[in-house]
Amino acid sequence: MEEIQKQKMKQLRETGLSYGALGKMFRISRARVHQICSGYIPHPSYTIKKVYKFIMVRDNFECQWKEKCKNKKIEMRDLVVHHIDFNNNNNSSDNLITLCRFCHSGFHSTNHIDSKIEERMKKGVIERGKEKAKKFIDRNKKIVELRKKEKLTFNEIGKRFGICDQSASDAYHKEKQRSNNNINN
Questions:
Q1: Looking at the domain assignment, is residue 104 inside a domain?
Q2: pLDDT confidence tier of residue 185, bands split at 50, 70 and 90
Q3: Which of 93, 123, 132, 152 might form a disulfide with 156, Cβ 3.0–4.6 angstroms?
Q4: Closest of 142, 133, 61 to residue 97, by C-alpha
Q5: Per-residue DSSP letters for the chain?
Q6: Residue range of the domain that includes 27
C-alpha cells in the first residue's frame, strides 16, 4: 500500500470512521487498518520469513542446484534459502535461491561460489521470475475481461480460477492499475 493511501486512511480514521469501514473502503482487513493507523511496524524476522517463503514457492520447494543431493529424498525441512552473494543483508529476490541443506553446506564449506555457477543461478532465478510474472499478468487480464464482458462477481471469478474472492478482487485492481500505468507512460 502506498504512503498516500496510508495517510488518507489515517485522516479518515480521525474523522471517526471505524476500522471495519476503512477496511472495506481500502479492500484490506480491519486488523491491517488498525496496524496502519497505529503505526505498527512488523518485526524484521516476520518480513524475512515472508520473503523466504516467497522464494521457496517460486522455486517449487525444490533444491535449485542439485549438485550434492542427487538421488537423495529431500523433504521440506531439508530446504533453506541461500544468499547467492553471501551477503545476508541482500534479500532481493534475484539474490536468493532455494537449496537443500546438503548443497547449502557445500557452498559454505568453501565459503565462495564459482562465478559461472553464480551467473547460472541468477539467470535461472530471473527467468523463473519472468515466467511466473507473465502467468499472473495473463491471469489478471482474463479476470478483468471476465469482469467486464460477463459481469461476474469476484466470488464467481475466484471459483473459476481456484482463488478466493479477495484475491480475485486484488488481481483485478492490480491489472487495472498496471494497464493504466502503461497507458500513462
A1: yes
A2: low
A3: 152
A4: 61
A5: --HHHHHHHHHHHHTT--HHHHHHHHTS-HHHHHHHHHT----HHHHHHHHHHHHHHHTTTS-SS-SS-TT----GGGEEEEETTS-TT---GGGEEEEEHHHHHHHHHHT---HHHHHHHHHHHHHHHHHHHHHHHHHHHHHHHHHHHS---HHHHHHHHTS-HHHHHHHHHHHHHHHHHHHH-
A6: 3-38
Residues 6+ apart with CB under 8 A from 59: 97, 98, 125, 128
Which of 113, 135, 156 lies at the terminal end of a domain, its last residue? 113
pLDDT tens for residues 122-181? 666 667 666 766 777 788 888 888 888 988 888 888 888 888 888 888 888 888 877 777
Which tens digits make up the pLDDT trace of 35-51?
889 887 766 676 788 88
* Burial grade of 102 (CB within 10 A; 0-12, 13-18, 19 or more): middle
Domains in the chain, number: 3
